[in-house]
Amino acid sequence: MSKLSAFCVAAILTLPIFGAVAEDAVSSPPSVSELFAAAIESAETQAQQRWAFSVTVRNLTDEDAPVFVRRFDPRQPEGERWLLLSHDIEALSKDERKALEAQGDDDEADTDLIYDGLSNFAEEVKLVGDASGLATFEFKMSDPEVPKKMVEAIKGRAVLDKKGGYISLVELVSTKSFKPHPAAKIKLFRQTQHYIKLVSDGPAVLADTEMEISGKAMFQDFSQHFRIEYADIEPVDAPPFQVNK
Question: Who wins on pLDDT, 9 or 41?
Answer without folding.
Answer: 41
